[in-house]
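User: tokens in, sequence out, please.
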């Protein structure tokens, strides 16, 4: 088995770039996954794992082989692992995985889909929380409009606790996504302050997409003008918005309630 003990090793340097630079991830078409659960969920989700690196004093070779199957294994030492590891709490294992296409055309939807759409989410932590909620509700898909963050950013992988790999995800421009929804006759309800009706008055039992925007500026006019209906979560405090992932969760589980969970 191959062993690497130097942080100056060219392969290790390339992996450091994958952790730090979206450009490196895009150019190589690969990214790093850290943790047993996350690697396991990625493999279950159909991601191709190229290489697994492990720190034997934390994650044994036997344990690693049970997880890895026939994937190439590389034993590393503590210095190398600490150079690559992103989390404070660690399990001694990392994987190099191939990124997936996130085209709208790749989505496999059910006959009566329920989808969450987020326009220009800025914080990786919010994206991760959104993916966790989507997994909990077993949504058909998560669509990101005009993404600002690379979805393979290690903060997204970490904050999603592996739900990046359990959801169908696609990205596109607002115009592309609206055309996609209309072509498939999917009603879409936009969470916004303007010209809105209370979210619980709408019927989400047919093909539905729920659309949320940023906490700072909300959804763009294009979404508000095209919506089947603009909806609002009644606010009874001093502020007029809440965390985007929390708002999405409220809308999603109202739709799930109407559908009998």
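Assistant: Sequence out:
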């Amino acid at each position: 088995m191959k062993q690497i003990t130097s942080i100056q090793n060219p392969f290790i340097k390339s992996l450091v770039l994958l952790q730090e630079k979206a450009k490196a991830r895009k150019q190589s078409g690969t990214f790093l996954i850290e943790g047993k659960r996350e690697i396991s969920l990625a493999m279950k989700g159909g991601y191709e794992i190229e290489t697994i690196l492990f720190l034997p004093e934390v994650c044994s070779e036997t344990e690693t082989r049970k997880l890895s199957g026939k994937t190439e294994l590389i034993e590393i030492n503590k210095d190398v692992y600490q150079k690559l590891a992103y989390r404070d709490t660690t399990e001694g294992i990392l994987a190099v995985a191939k990124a997936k296409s996130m085209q709208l055309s790749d989505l496999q939807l059910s006959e009566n889909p329920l989808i969450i759409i987020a326009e220009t989410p800025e914080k990786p932590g919010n994206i991760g929380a959104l993916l966790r909620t989507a997994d909990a509700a077993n949504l058909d898909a998560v669509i990101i409009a005009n993404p600002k963050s690379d979805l393979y950013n290690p903060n997204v992988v970490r904050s999603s606790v592996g739900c990046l790999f359990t959801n169908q995800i696609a990205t596109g421009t607002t115009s592309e996504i609206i055309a996609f929804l209309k072509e498939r006759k999917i009603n879409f309800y936009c969470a916004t302050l303007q010209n809105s009706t209370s979210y619980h008055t709408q019927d989400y039992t047919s093909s539905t997409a729920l659309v949320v925007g940023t906490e700072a500026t909300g959804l763009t006019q294009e979404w508000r003008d095209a919506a089947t209906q603009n909806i609002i979560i009644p606010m009874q405090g001093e502020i007029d918005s809440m965390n985007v992932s929390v708002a999405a969760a409220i809308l999603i589980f109202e739709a799930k309630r109407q559908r009998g969970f």
